[in-house]
From TrEMBL:
PANTHER family: PSEUDOURIDINE SYNTHASE FAMILY PROTEIN-RELATED, RNA-BINDING S4 DOMAIN-CONTAINING PROTEIN
UniProt KW keywords: Isomerase
Name under which the protein is recorded: Pseudouridine synthase
Gene Ontology MF terms: catalytic activity, acting on RNA; pseudouridine synthase activity; RNA binding
InterPro entries: PsdUridine_s_RsuA/RluB/E/F_cat, PsdUridine_synth_cat_dom_sf, PsdUridine_synth_RsuA/RluA, PsdUridine_synth_RsuA/RluB/E/F, PsdUridine_synth_RsuA/RluB_CS, RsuA_PseudoU_synthase, TruA/RsuA/RluB/E/F_N
SUPFAM superfamilies listed in its UniProt record: Pseudouridine synthase
Classification via NCBIfam families: pseudouridine synthase
Organism annotation: Dyadobacter luteus
GO biological process: pseudouridine synthesis; rRNA processing
Protein family (similarity comment): Belongs to the pseudouridine synthase RsuA family.
Keyword Ion transport: no
EC code(s) of this entry: 5.4.99.-
Short name of one Pfam family: PseudoU_synth_2
Domain annotation Pseudouridine synthase RsuA/RluA-like: ranges: 3-154
Length: 197
């Protein structure tokens, strides 16, 4: 039987069950996952937010295979007051470095965002009184290594905090309880249908 779990991956945790260095891993969450359930994709240790775990290998392929172009939504806090011009540039595609080679990102949907309701980050981001911060929403249909961070850096707005808000049409807004780092919930049948669409 296929099972589907969503978690709010905390900042500083690796998107895997095996331990590596001093980082916390999914094995440290207060939840007894079935043995055959694994994360679909990954979030860097210094990123947080929505992570899907399942034993449905066909869905894993669909979500990870670039040709299916499934969307992922990120909420990003950047250093400085982000501009519409910077959002337009990222939306059109910017040149970033992937494994030492230049890569033009695919068109994305990047918009200015009011500060979203996310859990407090531990540790909090550095606060500098003389440098403002702002938020943007980034919707991608590809997932290159540290892509969002490289995109914001390319338009001179370094990423301070990065949280994945949604995978396809399932988002943190669907969480049945208050969102907190490390929370785990199993998808209801209606949500599974939306995910598989």
């Amino acid at each position: 039987m296929f099972q589907y779990f969503l978690i709010y991956k905390p900042f500083g945790m690796l998107s895997q069950f095996t331990h590596e260095g001093d980082h916390a891993t999914l094995a440290d969450l207060d939840f007894d996952f079935p043995k055959d359930v694994y994360p679909v994709g990954r979030l860097d240790a210094d990123s947080e937010g929505l992570l899907l775990l399942t034993n449905d290998n066909a869905l894993k392929t669909k979500l990870l295979e670039p040709r299916f172009k499934h969307k992922r939504t990120y909420y990003v806090q950047v250093e400085g007051q982000a501009t519409q011009q910077a959002c337009n540039a990222m939306s059109a595609g910017v040149v970033i470095s992937i494994n030492g080679k230049k890569y033009q990102t695919l068109p994305a949907k990047v918009t200015l965002l009011e500060e979203p309701e996310l859990p407090e980050r531990n540790p909090p981001i550095r606060f500098r009184k003389n440098i403002p911060t702002s938020w943007i929403s980034v919707i991608l249909h590809e997932g290159k290594n540290r892509q969002v961070r490289k995109m914001t850096a390319a338009v001179n707005f370094p990423t301070l905090r990065l949280a994945r808000w949604a995978i396809g049409d399932i988002s943190l807004a669907d969480c049945p309880v208050n969102i907190s780092p490390g929370i785990v919930w199993e998808l209801a049948p209606a949500e599974i249908t939306r995910l598989l669409r």
